[in-house]
Amino acid sequence: MKKNGANTKAGQVKNKMHTPVFLQTVLEALAVRPDGKYIDGTAGEGGHLGKIAEQGATVLGIDYDRDQIERLITGGFGNKVTLVHGNFRDIARIAQTHGFTAVDGILLDLGLSYRQLRDKGIGLSYRNADEPLLMRLYDDNGTTAAQVLNHESAGDLIRMLVKNAEEPYAAEIVEEVLIRRRQAPLKTVGDLLEIITSVSRRNRVNAEATAARVFQALRMRVNEEMENLECAMHDAVELLRPGGRLVVITFHSLEDRYVKLFGKNTPGLKAIRFQVRSKDRARFERSAQLRVFEKQK
Ligand SMILES: C[S@@+](CC[C@H](N)C(=O)[O-])C[C@H]1O[C@@H](n2cnc3c(N)ncnc32)[C@H](O)[C@@H]1O
Question: 7-39: per-residue pLDDT in tens?
Fold first, then answer.
């Protein structure tokens, strides 16, 4: 496989460490005020959260990856920052528990951070061939990527690849998965990569781009990413004060379509056109999209 190419976070593990996506634009979109209260539902490596806190605001940071939140807890953000290990699909309960209602802004910067892709050791990136195909970020007892590949029906696997990643070679990939799993269960990233490489070679397409899509689709399935987002968006609107803003950064078309339509179809929510600063845009992959909504007064 080539070293560079896929236009995804996974494809850029090496180059883009620790830089929060669209940082300046996000701060402007949230209209951060020193006396304001904000929720960062995807605290991650604390890039956005740290900058919001630097302005003197009170912040609740949530992340469902225990490693991320534990690192943040030792990060010395001060007593105006509350950090919670949890899934943003439970944002309503977590926010209530910590007194974050009628907030001024909520940020959801979806997907994964570069550190997770590089270091988690659970098969999130197609670059790490020896890692086990787990991909579970939150529920240690939930289904793993290997279980999905080894046990789901051909129809379900094809639907997953098409729905989550619009994978054009879904049927061929799944056919090979079924042949392979009859011999021995798939266990590692390398096992799946062999299939992806052989299908891509046969069709004369970029194997890295195919791998990026297949890994994204599996990760979304294992972590129920669309379900989490759907729950969080509804509850986030409830948690905003009138005039408060919801800022969402998406990384693929399924998420972005959902967020855009949600904004359009939710009474009392107004989409705000917010131009991503050119400096911010230049640093990030084209797939990143920013959506900003304001709760009507
Ligand atoms: C792109 S990173 C966020 C980076 C962060 N904005 C920063 O500046 O460092 C996305 C983070 O969201 C977390 N995440 C994804 N889905 C989540 C969910 N449903 N609930 C809580 N955290 C989630 C991931 O574990 C990851 O740490």
Answer: 334 333 333 445 798 999 999 999 999 999 999
The closest alpha carbon to 107, from 90, 94, 88, 93, belongs to 88
| 150-176 pLDDT tens trace | 999 999 999 999 999 999 999 999 999
Q: Is-above-0.90 flag for pTM?
A: yes
Return the biggest CA–CA distance within the chain.
61
**CATH superfamily of this structure's domain 120-222:** Putative methyltransferase TM0872, insert domain (1.10.150.170)
**Which numbered atom of ligand 1 lies nearest the CA of 50?**
8
Is the CB–ligand 1 distance for residue 87 below 6 Å?
yes
Tokens standing for residue 12: 């850029």
Q: Which CATH code is given to the segment(s) 10-114+225-295?
A: 3.40.50.150
Q: Is the CB of 200 under 6 A from ligand 1?
A: no
Tell me the C-alpha to C-alpha distance, in Å, between residue 190 and each of 133, 182, 193, 219.
Answer: 9, 17, 5, 16
